[in-house]
Design goal:
The chain is an alpha/beta fold and 448 residues long. The chain is 38% helix and 14% strand. Bound molecules: pyridoxal-5'-phosphate (PLP) and zinc ion (ZN). Pyridoxal-5'-phosphate is lined by residues 123, 125, 151, 219, 250-256, 331-332, 377, 379-380, 407-408.
Length: 448
């Protein structure tokens, strides 16, 4: 039987099992590893240059050409056009920010901020959901579920009600930022708070899927990552179809970094780019599994022969210590990232580096982006905090072109922002001043 142009394939080269896209799988049925969406590129009509995608700006009155995900559909064409879901995701901008550059000691024209907060639910997750919900529609799913630190639940809830799917979200009690919790409830998701952290929720949601056959919307879902590839296409687009020297991204469940690595692997293979950028993945020190495994325990992709023993030992150690991750950047408060192996592959493809930054560094970087950029939530600011480290260490040079992915909107986590300013926690704190209800007193303050 001739297989379809798009199919699913196990990432483990020793297995390599293939599955039809019409199947709903969470992992490889043969070996349990993660799955990729794959394409028989010889049978896909891919444009001969990235510039060719620009022509879709002129036909943006068409639904799919307007979407920042689907106007690149030739590179992720796993379902028929009439099943592709869009609610206007991916209308994001790449901002050249010389004030932030200057503050860090980077050259003018070197720092770019890819602001994914402009998505319909306020985070990059919408890129992935446009693709995952298209697949869900293709397989005629009626109910979906996800575990979430917050933004996944907001995005899933929004897409679910616009597609008519029933939706349940699992979140850790007390672990979610207020903006995100308010969205899940407002968009009509059944919201279940579990007495535990994200890793507990992730564990439970997989069991729930198995028992009830619900459609899983976490980034284990290979189709979600297809949508997230387009963040990289839009960065290239924003640079006049040039590839930056570096991409910096926060690392949580490692779906984004995995998707970015896959995007560049494919673009290189297709001859659509002439170089692959380097990738820097930034953890918070309170949730630094990737940093620990890669930098201190020597874990690597190793042509797909990942040393599982290193991972098992570390996770056993976490369990023995009853470790629960802690960081103010709640979106990356994860200690058992499900996309770890795909991320290791991305690190190899992109000659990647990983590092961890502290919460105070994240908070100052967040406020810097607020002061001079479009603002973002704490996890997103790990990128700028990470850039500062990499610059100080000489890994990144001041003249290199760096694109930082600002993953979520500034209004997602007002508590962190307000506390930073009111409690004067950092160098950019800008607390409100109290004054009597008196004109002269107000004027004295303004003129001070
Ligand atoms: C989900 C999320 C992350 C983490 O992304 P992963 O793909 O899980 O590594 C980072 N920042 C924000 C704002 C998020 O919502
Ligand atoms: Zn397999």
């Amino acid at each position: 039987m001739k297989k379809d142009v798009a199919y699913q394939k196990c990432i483990n080269p020793q297995c390599g099992a293939e599955y039809d896209c019409a199947q709903t799988l969470v992992t490889c049925s043969a070996c349990g590893e993660l799955l990729d969406a794959q394409y028989d590129w010889d049978r896909v009509s891919v444009p001969d240059s990235m510039e060719a995608f620009a022509k879709r700006w002129t036909t943006r009155s068409r639904r799919l050409d307007f979407s920042g995900v689907w106007r690149f559909r030739d590179l992720l064409d796993f379902c028929p056009d009439d099943q592709k879901v869009s609610i206007g995701e991916g209308q994001t901008i790449l901002e050249k920010n010389d004030r932030v550059a200057q503050h860090l000691g980077m050259d003018p024209g070197s720092v770019y901020l890819q602001y994914e907060g402009l998505n319909p639910s306020g985070s990059f997750k919408d890129n992935g959901m446009a693709a995952a919900f298209s697949h869900a529609k293709m397989v005629e799913a009626t109910s979906c579920v996800c575990a979430s630190t917050g933004n996944t639940s907001a995005s899933v809830a929004l897409y679910a009600h616009s597609c008519g799917l029933k939706c349940t979200v699992l979140i850790g009690t007390g672990r979610i930022a207020f903006g995100k919790l308010s969205q899940a409830m407002d968009y009509g998701a059944q919201t279940i708070q579990i007495n535990g952290d994200f890793d507990d929720c992730m564990h439970q949601v997989q069991a729930v899927c198995q028992r009830l056959g619900l459609y899983l919307m976490n980034s284990l879902n290979p189709f979600r990552l297809e949508g997230q590839k387009t963040i990289m296409y839009r960065i290239i687009e924003g640079l006049g179809w040039e590839v930056p020297d570096w991409i910096i991204v926060p690392g949580g469940n490692l779906g984004n970094s995995s998707a970015f690595g896959k995007a560049f692997m494919e673009l290189k293979q297709l001859g659509l780019i002439n170089k692959v950028p380097r990738l820097a993945i930034v953890n918070a020190t309170g949730a630094d599994t990737l940093t620990e495994l890669v930098n201190n325990r020597g874990l690597s992709w190793n042509d797909g022969r990942v040393d599982q023993g290193i991972i098992d030992d570390y996770y056993a150690d976490l369990t023995a210590r009853e470790f629960s991750p802690r960081t103010c950047a709640s979106a990356i408060e994860i200690s058992r990232p499900v996309n770890l192996k795909k991320c290791l592959r991305a690190l190899e493809v992109c000659q990647g580096v990983v590092l961890a930054v502290t919460d105070p560094e994240i908070c100052d970087a967040r406020a810097l982006i607020g002061r001079y950029g479009l603002g973002c939530e704490p996890a997103s600011a790990a990128t700028i905090a990470g850039l500062k480290h990499l610059l100080d260490e000489g890994v990144i040079n001041p003249g290199e072109r760096v694109a930082c992915v600002l993953t979520g909107h500034v209004l997602k986590d007002p508590d962190v922002t307000v506390n930073y300013h009111k409690q004067k926690q950092g160098v950019f704190s800008n607390a409100p001043v109290e004054v009597e209800n008196d004109l002269e007193a107000i004027i004295r303050l303004i003129q001070r």
